[in-house]
Amino acid sequence: MQKATSYEIHVQDCLDEKWAARFIPFAVTVGDKESILIGVVHDQAELFGVLLKIRDLGLSLVSVNPVERR
Amino acid sequence: MTNLLPTKFYLPPLPGGFVARPQLLQILDEAVKHRLTLVSAPAGAGKTTLVSAWAQSARKKGVAFGWLSLDEADNDPGRFMECLVACLEEWGIILETSMRYPKGGEQIQPENIPADFIRGLTNLKRDTTIIVDDYHLIQNREVHAILEYLLEHASLLFHLMLLTRSDPPFELARLRVSGQLVELRIEQLRFSMREAGAFLRKAAGVQLTETDIAVLNERTEGWVAGLQMAAISLRGREDASAFVAAFAGSHRFVLDYLLEQVLNRQSSEVQEFLLKTSILERLSAPLCDAVIESSGMARGLLDTLERANLFLIPLDDERGWYRYHHLFADLLENVLEQSHPDLLVGLHRRACRWHEAQGMLPEALHHALEAGDNELVARMVSANMLAIVEHAELAPILLHMDAVPRAERITLPWLGVAYAWGLAYAGQNERAGLELSLAEKQADKLVSEERSRLLGHIAAVRAYLAWSNGDQPEAVIYAEQAAHLLPAEEIAVRALNLTTLGNAMTQYAADTHAVEVLEQAMLLARQGGQSHVFMLAAGAMAFACKILGQFHRAYEVCEDAIEVAGAYQRSNRRELTAAASIYAFLSRVLSEWGELEKAIRVARKGLALSELWGQADTIMVCLLYLAQALALAGEAESSQQVLQRARKIAQKISPWHMINVDLAELDTCLDGGTSNASEVYQEAIRKQNAGYKFPDFLAARLLLRQNRANDVLILLERALPEAQQHPSYENVRLYTFQALAHFQKKDFPHALVSLDQALDLAEPENRLATFVREGDKMEKLLQLAQANSMHPEFIQCLLAVFEIRRKFKAEPAPGIEQLIEPLSARELEILNYLNGYLSSMEIAEQLVVSVNTVRTHMKNIYGKLGVHGRSAAVRRAKELGLVK
Known about the structure:
A: Alpha-Beta Plaits; 19% helix; B: Rossmann fold; 46 helices; 7 strands; 4% strand
């Protein structure tokens, strides 16, 4: 089994904090011109689940990066 | 039950404020000459509107196409093929196929796509485009593979257009290089300044400066969903420029910002309606009334939303069903979850209750699960358990339950029990048993009454499973346990349980007790108005009568049940799929009476219904009796093919079913004619010599075929006295074998004595097939009996059947037969239209009725003709001389 990994996803639009519930297990931080989603996923399927939600809202993806394990 | 399937083929009408985009339509005109057109762009980019605008104009030009909107449930190869075929038929794209495709959950590989289907697509007469909307909902690799296969192998006149939020995993590069692919992507779909201007003027009804339009179009990046929300927010505003400036200055997610503006512009009534109904996949006025707890306000509100272009898309011509634009619904639901999380449970609960009352059980279950209310799930499921598993749509419900995590299922024993019923019906006996053990462990958590009800259900499923596994003693024990535990008001389950008990008793040792139990089962089901359980009980009764050799009584039971099924069909406007086994047993009786053509037709009708239902045991029975009728009619090869299908299904259910198929195959092979007869026969001899114990009648028949007359007589000396203890329909055959064994030994006096006993038993029940299937030797023996003036009328009848059979073999009769139920004048009229190229919608226009009325007629026509689709109906009607 794959170990839990932290990911940081940048999207081009400024999402409000109220969207956080939609992106569990990711937390949403609003930046100046983009929003940052950070969360821990257990496998790739979970990550793709979040990416599909981003697609379904018509948001533009900037980057997806694994974050070093704490 | 309301059938929502037709809404999937409904071409969405153009929304208000629609802006024609001629250059894109032109691209599509060109595109459909290519193999694949991909309209791939994010949600809200205007894909559906663009393509439906193209389709509306294509329809006027007579271009052939079909429209299919996908749902999440279609992400399954069986279900997808079903939708695809239904779409082709709905849009009048005639396929030369009458095949049914495996129901959801079954494996389909591209190489297994029925050759009929490919052939149908090869025989297209003109360019035909299949448009599939929301293709991104498909993630199942097998579905992708099916479409890739079609792109490769179907006729050059076949074209595919996919509307999707992400590219399908096809070899797009190869298609692109070979010039077979045209793509429309976000760059082309974005609104230009000019288009945005036209759109905003039309939709918002306000004059905007060029600068404002430019700002709006830049801020929304030409995204039509954004532009539409902006337009709605602008409607009736005097300070348009101020709005535009504020919007441009905001860094927030465009849709978030705009949705807030849109909602703020609505009356509080509309706002509340939008938020509360956002939980619904599909909306109708009565459903909305139930969910928002109003009496009759929903109709007006839905009309308001449609007029205001508030992302409400009609799904039929009658304005019965709607859905929200998916993106809009997502946004609304998010607002609802944030602002009124406390309302969610109540909304889902009410939605659940409404769907339940309409018999829309999959939807009801969905909302029960969404409500996260375990008690509701338990009550919903337990109250409707049988209806859920009996209501034809077994596959989607199983898929739904598969999706519930096991941990959650464990805490909901009722859900586990419902799942077990479903699995048992689908022939997945082992998994069903596992679910029951899990559910049983939870029983202690329930209070005493609820506990015994649950345990009663569990015992009833176990009885059913034991019967299906061929363990009759165990079935009897569990069924008696269940009968003791189940409370009086559980009429359906109690009647079903008695049916299992009767069935098991019939198998175990057929006697009049079994018949009494089944009489009780039928009575209970009838009193409780449980038509589907009544069918099962009557089917079991017909089976018991057959085992007891009471063919006339079996016939009466079947006739009675078919009447009940007809009444059900008339009042519910859908077929009672549980009637499948009735047709199977009726076919068995007719076979016995030598009415073979009718027997084949009735068995096919039963098979069609059972496949629609997906109930594995019933499919088996229908296949076995169809094979028998075909074999008796001399159609040995078809019979063999039917048995092969039965074998495949039996393998999945239980070894007991395999044995039944083996025995049926051997009996059929001994009737003669099949290509593998000698193989099967040799194998059976080998088994018999190795000590395998066949049922006495088959053992005797096998020995007789080997000319071992003495062994036959020894065997029967033991078997006949035993048989007299247990009345069975196969007993007659023991006497016929005895007669034939004596005949083989040229001991004519004894042969005639035995034959006389067989005729004594057979004549009252008119059992012609028992004699006719034994062939030439039997005919000679009967002629000898005729010379001795035995049973003159019956023998005359028998010899006449031999004569007809000879003629039938020499020159097969054309299939001009009588229908079980004649077609009405209106149905004949529609049948004639079906023989043309009009779609059901166009037929409706011609007849000035609603398309739903046409569909209902079509369904009835299919039912009466015993076929599944339009092309099969036309073919059948031609055979019958009903159309030219």
